[in-house]
Write a structure and sequence with these properties.
The protein is mainly beta and about 475 residues long. It contains four helices and 35 strands. It has one domain: YVTN repeat-like/Quinoprotein amine dehydrogenase (Methylamine Dehydrogenase, Chain H, 7 Propeller), CATH 2.130.10.10. Strands 26, 27, 28, 29 and 30 form a five-stranded antiparallel beta sheet that branches.
Length: about 475
């Protein structure tokens, strides 16, 4: 594989504030052209690869590369030791990709979402295999409506070539993308989607969820879990959806618990039990006193309440944020999803929160709400000031300013922090900025014109 050397940078921040940006991106993805790029050749095995053993290569424990994934099939590989670009290519242009992916152009019509990755690509570093949910070649329309149901598939890619080695079609077309979760040992993956056929036969609005468990090596189905929940009962808190996890969910190290937002789902045999962790229940009297300035008054009852949101999550801890009415200041803390224990309250400027992978440090980038360029809505503007806090003590350990990283949040955001906690990768307009922590110095700026800041994802690997 021939690779072109080039400099690049990316941003990542996990926060509830990014949700509407993602919807906006999916509704009107611009046509992103990738020019002057040397493409990595890939080999494709025949479909029906469910029975094929895909194992290859020894385990490489070192995480020396970060892979950045754009929403249109663009992939970057950056060496984290010297911050250089090791590879830059498009999945749809790899050899044999046309057997699995819809064409990016059909006559004069262009499909900017061809090769689109939904959620994040998950890598088993022991085998060098990567798993992700992608659009399939065909979809369908809902009967008697104009709603378009998309087809999806699980693609298995082999690192470092990023060649497609197998495809697992998802039997039913879906309104929203299925979610995939690879176990920590890389031996199985969980695939969650909805049974639209069953839902269509039920008169009362109902969600029928399916979680299929597959052998990651052979793509052979191991088990299936099914759950039917009436939507009205969920809204009235009469029922809990146990078979649900989002694209930011992750396993505990033992592979028996799934952490997602403020929920912990325990897996026991062929069943899953989901539990909501209330971040207010474990607060001490002293902590609640510090939060009084952020309380709102409920009009019907005249009782104070906290309008909190869940932010980033790592190592079984989820950030909780409560902002004041002017969105200039906020209180931050983490809740341990295993124990329900809350960390000390941190009072800081309103901003975008991100945890280091070990959950020990909290990075906050200041942010403001401002009118969009067309004045049709308010959007988040990321600022140049950053604060780094020790979660366990609530004390500030560093502060820095980086004017390069400021701008509209939809085009400027933190994508991820390295496992060592020493590198932060920002999507910054059409560049990927690599910043050192805790000092905030710019280490590299790499041209990445085919990545979208609001929907980019990353993962680390030794390959």
């Amino acid at each position: 594989m021939q690779l072109r050397k080039k400099r690049v940078v990316v941003v990542s921040t996990t926060s509830q504030m990014v949700c509407w940006f993602k919807r906006k991106l999916l509704n009107r993805l611009p046509l992103l052209l990738l020019c002057g790029i040397l493409i990595c050749a890939g080999l494709v095995v025949e479909s029906g690869a469910q029975q094929q053993d895909l194992s290859s290569g020894p385990f490489s424990p070192a995480q020396n590369f970060v892979y950045l994934f754009g929403p249109n099939g663009a992939f970057l590989k950056i060496a984290t030791e010297d911050n250089t670009l090791a590879a830059y290519w498009m999945l749809s242009r790899t050899e044999g990709a046309s057997a699995y992916l819809a064409p990016c152009r059909d006559g004069h019509a262009a499909d900017p979402g061809c090769g689109m990755l939904f959620g994040r690509l998950q890598i088993d570093d022991r085998t060098g295999r990567a798993y992700g949910v992608f659009a399939a070649r065909k979809g369908s329309k809902q009967p008697d409506t104009d709603i378009e149901y998309a087809g999806y598939q699980v693609l298995v890619l082999q690192l470092p070539e990023m060649k497609i080695v197998a495809s697992l079609p998802i039997s039913q077309t879906q309104l929203e993308p299925p979610t995939l979760l690879l176990t920590p040992d890389g031996k199985r993956f969980f695939l969650r989607y909805r049974d639209r056929s069953a839902e269509a036969k039920i008169t009362e609005p109902t969600i029928v969820s399916i979680v299929d468990v597959y052998d990651a090596n052979t793509l052979k189905g191991l088990s299936t879990m099914r759950e039917s929940v009436v939507i009205k009962d969920v809204r009235m808190l009469k029922a809990v959806m146990n078979l649900g996890f989002g694209d930011k969910a992750y396993f505990d190290t033992d592979g028996n618990v799934i952490f997602d937002n403020l929920t912990a789902t325990t897996i026991a045999g062929a069943s899953m039990r989901r539990q909501y962790i209330n971040p207010l229940e474990g607060l001490s009297a002293e902590q609640r006193d510090r939060l009084k300035a952020f309380e709102k008054i409920d009009a019907p009852t005249q009782r104070p309440w906290l309008d909190f949101v869940a932010g980033d999550s790592a190592a079984g801890k989820t950030v909780v944020r409560v902002a004041n009415s002017s969105f200039t200041e906020a209180a931050y803390w983490t809740v341990d999803l295993r124990t329900g224990q809350d960390s000390p309250i941190i009072i800081a400027p309103f901003g975008i929160d991100h945890l280091t992978p070990d959950g020990r440090l909290l990075l906050i980038q200041e942010a403001k709400l401002a009118e969009s360029a067309d004045k049709s809505a308010r959007e988040i503007q990321a600022g140049p000031n950053f604060w780094l806090y020790d979660v366990s003590t609530g004390k500030q350990v560093a502060r820095f300013e980086n004017t390069v990283l400021s701008g509209p949040f939809s085009r400027n955001r933190l994508i991820c922090i390295s496992p060592s906690g020493k590198r932060a990768f920002f999507a910054n307009e059409r560049k990927t900025q690599i910043v050192s922590l805790p000092d905030g110095n710019n280490l590299a700026a790499l041209e990445t014109q085919s990545l979208e800041a609001s929907a980019s994802a990353c993962t680390f690997s030794g390959r």
